UniProtKB/TrEMBL annotation:
It comes from the Bacteria. It comes from Pseudonocardia xishanensis. This is Enoyl-CoA hydratase/isomerase family protein. Pfam families: ECH_1. InterPro entries: ClpP/crotonase-like_dom_sf, Enoyl-CoA_hydra/iso.
Length: 287
């Protein structure tokens, strides 16, 4: 894939392989573009990490809107191949966040207001990406959210086990995590997975107006308000360390790797499979 020019303030020479970024000076729109399913693979992970470094040092941008070039996929999920290496023992409880946790904490704590435009599927790591944003708005009849990790023998280990209880409460969080079901826009809004469900034809206009309104406020005020709101709940750090320790425990007996390989063999990470068979295939992995 040919790298695309990124227009974030004076860093016009920065190139990303899986992102397209445009800005008017105070608002940036980041379009995820990693065909065929916007898989959250090492290249996209690297691109997002570099982008967040640029934004954190950017004193001008006040709002960042994340959307997708593909109307069917926001982010498919993390690349399953990242988790297939055999594990022989559980490592000691960690003292630092794992790579995806650190990335999504960097996203959550950006000084800018961040808004997600969800028109397609956000599964696994894609849903965890969205839960790290400040606001998410979803298209009725199109948006789908799901945490599928329990079906393949692991946990939502990129902040999901910690974000969801705070967002939804314990019972709904466990329904989402253990049920591995797909949630449409209206149910996601009722549960608290997204801010609002809107008609697909109204979604972009609503987000554009909201982003423009927030971008008219002082950058310092936006950052301070985010910090003040975050201070209302306990820090995530200890819970995230426990999340990684729990994830490590799920990967030592080989069952998770077996289930992930079985899902890949059925067609996971293929576009048509992800759109039409992914959820029902999760029930076939115990055979």
């Amino acid at each position: 894939m040919v790298g695309r020019l990124v227009l974030v303030n004076e860093l016009d020479s920065t190139r990303f392989e899986t992102l397209r970024v445009r800005t008017d000076g105070v608002r940036a729109t980041v379009t995820l573009d990693n065909p065929p399913t916007n898989l959250f693979d090492p290249q996209m992970i690297d691109d997002v990490s570099r982008l967040l470094g640029i934004l954190r040092a950017d004193p001008e941008t006040r709002v960042v809107v994340f959307d997708s070039a593909d109307p069917d996929f926001f982010i498919g999920h993390a690349d399953l191949n990242l988790f297939l290496a055999p594990r022989t023992e559980v490592p000691p409880r960690p003292h630092v966040l794992n790579g995806l946790q650190a990335l999504f904490e960097d996203l959550r704590t950006l000084p800018q207001a961040t808004i997600g435009v969800l028109e397609g599927r956000a599964v696994g790591g894609g849903a965890e990406f969205l839960s790290s944003l400040d606001m998410v708005f979803a298209a009725r009849g199109r948006a789908v959210l799901s945490q599928f990790e329990a079906a393949v023998g692991v946990i939502p280990g990129a902040t999901g086990s910690q974000r969801l209880p705070r967002m939804l409460g314990r019972q709904r969080a466990l329904e989402v995590i253990l049920g591995c079901d797909e949630f449409d826009a209206d149910t996601a809004a009722a549960y608290g997975l997204v801010n609002r469900a809107l008609p697909a034809e109204e979604l972009r206009g609503f987000v554009d107006r909201l982003a423009a309104r927030i971008a008219s406020f002082p950058a310092k005020t936006i950052a301070i308000n985010k910090a003040a709101v975050d201070a209302a709940t306990p820090p995530y750090f200890d819970g995230l360390l426990e999340e990684t320790h729990a994830l490590d425990q799920t990967l030592v007996d080989g069952e998770a790797q077996r289930r992930m390989k079985a899902l890949l063999a059925l067609g996971a990470q293929d576009r048509e499979f992800e759109l039409t068979r992914f959820s029902t295939a999760l029930e076939e992995l115990d055979r």
